[in-house]
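Q: Hi! Curious about what (California timema) hypothetical protein looks like structurally. Here's the sequence.
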Amino acid sequence: MLMICDYGTAVRLPSLVDEDVQSKIQTLVGSMYSVRGAIGVLQEDIAAIRKNVTSLNNITSHTSSVSRQLLTTKHFTTAMLEMKEHTATPVASVFGSVSSRGEGEGLPTDCWELLEKGNNRSGIYRVLPPEASRPFFVYCQQDKRGGGWTVSSHN
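A: Let's find out. The predicted structure is below.
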């Protein structure tokens, strides 16, 4: 008599079944256990793939966000450069001529001086502070907290 165990369930086969059939049944049972093991491995693989897909989705979202920030920064930089070109009029025509040595004559020392001269429009201007060896561009904030604020950036 042949007994087959299936996860705690014993199945008795009658002794009438010949040995060849019993051997084939045992082979099928072994194959069934192998298939169940393979299914378990495949389920683990599926779980790992799902985790990887989630990770890729997160990376894609982050990359998209960073890309949008870079585009925003690029547009901001482009806008600032355009504003600089339109706002920073030639120094010779607004503040006097430029000497042969390249130093600005008649340039304001800071944004407060510009404000005192009646220039109350915020924008990018060229100034020559007393301690500076040459003029440079600054942003003048003329409409907040009384105006005259000088903003410079050294990059």
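A: A fun detail: The beta strands are 2-6, 9-13, 123-127, 136-141, 149-151.
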